[in-house]
Design goal:
Number of helices of chain B: 3
Number of domains of chain B: 2
Radius of gyration of chain A: 37 Å
Shape of chain A: rod-shaped
Number of strands of chain A: 13
Helix content of chain B: 10-25%
Number of strands of chain B: 11
Strand content of chain B: 35-45%
Oligomer: heterodimer
Number of domains of chain A: 1
Largest sheet of chain B: 7 strands, antiparallel
Structural class of chain A: mainly beta
Number of helices of chain A: 2
Strand content of chain A: 35-45%
Radius of gyration of chain B: 34 Å
Largest sheet of chain A: 6 strands, antiparallel
Strand order of the largest sheet of chain A: 3-2-6-11-8-9
Largest interface: A-B, 41 and 64 residues
Shape of chain B: elongated
Distance between the termini of chain A: 106 Å
């Protein structure tokens, strides 16, 4: 009897141990893992743009173009530069206003910039706006229907360009009828905007995203003079 | 006479019980013999390695230029190297970087391997929500479908991404690629000031678990 009991007890004990082994084994698969870090920080795209202090006026005088004038153009027209806006009044063919514009890349990355001059008030037929970098050929910046030229600027780089707005010597006076009488005073205001984008973007992409090169182009950028 | 009969019956019952007892007890006392044989058991080892084998994408150089990321000349043992898989600085929209990782089997047990994105943290609560929804992670196994999600979805979509199985054979390994991209904002210009100073940090957990016998 005692032997039987011991045998039964032993059998039960074995069964219990086996169950424990099975249960324990389910949660003890071999495995290993590693934790590795990934970090991301953002860069910024920013520029500074400021006009120089001097506005240079030149006119056609005595048949000689681009003669420097003081205070006013040869025939009394005026040019005023204030807060990034250049206002020309009563200019005639050959009158031009020139000012320097310094653009600085204050970003963490290389950028591309483009300068656009857009009339924001009034109109003077035939007026031209150009930008010249050093001795390079001047490029037009005043035609809103054309895409501007994008120029690369390295991180921390500063560039000074010359901006000129005026009427070419060959500009023609608008026709006026006798009823219209004397020509009205003509004035227009141009706003200069420097656009900047990350340099790894294509020119097409930047033009599209800023809405440049269309007559209804709108976009955000740094107003020169700020 | 009656006494003898009764006595006989009782005696018979007792004898019967004794016999049953004898049989029951005898059941557990049969002649027996035993033989023993040696059984050798040795535990398998799950031993794996994790290496960085390739890098790709764009990084901002010292001068601010957009430079190609260089791959390591030889695989980097990430189990010993405590540095991050990669650290993207000055990220701007459309920039991306990727790392190809290799899991090797250096043990005697085949295993399944998977990755999880955990511990996503941003240093600025204000920009966090905006930035996390613009940082896209793509995990691509060497075979099978890539899994793509933004970091704000990591809790739901970035867990237990199964990548494959590495057999317990010499030289066996499995590769996968992790790519992080700063998504463009629907092709519109946006002011980087909205993300000024933002930084995101997260962990990639690579897990290897032994293959279990199929039922």
């Amino acid at each position: 009897m005692k032997t039987k009991r011991n045998a039964i007890l032993a059998a039960v004990l074995v069964l219990v141990l086996c169950a424990a082994l099975v249960v324990g084994a389910t949660f003890a698969l071999f495995g290993t893992s590693w934790n590795k870090d990934i970090t991301v920080t953002t860069g910024n795209v920013s520029i500074k743009a400021a006009f120089g202090d001097e506005l240079k006026l030149t006119s056609l005088k005595d048949g000689i173009p681009d003669r420097e004038m003081e205070g006013a153009f040869a025939l009394g027209g005026t040019a005023v530069l204030k807060d990034g806006d250049l206002t020309l009044t009563n200019i005639v063919a050959g009158d031009k206003a020139t000012v320097t514009l310094t653009i600085e890349n204050t970003s963490d990355v290389e950028v591309k910039y483009a300068l656009v001059a857009a009339p924001t008030a009034g109109t003077i037929e035939g007026i031209e706006a150009t930008m010249q970098k050093g001795e390079e050929e001047a490029v037009s910046i005043g035609d809103a229907t054309k895409t501007p030229e994008w120029i690369q600027l390295d991180k921390g780089e500063k560039v000074t360009v010359t901006v000129t707005v005026g009427l070419p010597v060959e500009a023609e006076q608008p026709d006026r009828t006798e009823e219209e009488g004397a020509a009205e005073e003509q004035a227009c205001t141009y706003t200069f905007t420097v656009y900047a984008g990350q340099a790894n973007a294509s020119d097409t992409q930047l033009n599209t995203e800023f809405g440049l090169g269309t007559s209804a182009g709108t976009g955000t950028g740094e107003d020169a003079g700020n | 006479m009656r006494f003898s009969k009764t006595k006989a019956i009782v005696m018979s019952a007792v004898v019967t019980l004794l016999c049953v007892g004898l049989i029951v007890a005898a059941t557990f006392a049969l002649f027996s013999a035993s033989r023993s044989t040696n059984v050798h058991l040795s535990a398998g080892t799950l031993d794996a390695g994790l290496y960085l084998t390739a890098r790709d994408g764009v990084e901002i150089g010292e001068g601010g230029g957009f430079d190609e990321v260089a791959s390591p000349e030889s695989p980097v043992d990430l189990t010993k190297d405590g540095s991050a898989i990669f650290s993207i600085e000055n990220i701007v929209p459309t920039m991306w970087q990727s790392a190809t990782l290799r899991v090797t089997n250096e043990g005697s047990v085949a295993f399944d391997y998977s990755v999880c994105i955990v511990g996503v943290e941003a240093n600025d609560a204000t920009t966090a929500a905006k930035l996390l929804s613009r940082l896209q992670v793509t995990v691509t196994p060497s075979q099978g479908q890539a899994v793509t999600f933004t970091l704000d979805q990591a809790t739901e979509k970035g867990q237990g991404i199964a990548l494959g199985t590495v057999a317990a054979t010499d030289g066996a390994y499995g590769d996968f690629t992790v790519r992080v991209e700063f998504l463009n904002n629907d092709g519109t210009i946006e002011d980087s000031a909205a993300f000024a100073g933002a930084a995101v940090d997260f962990d990639l957990t690579v897990e290897c678990v032994q293959v279990t016998a199929s039922e």
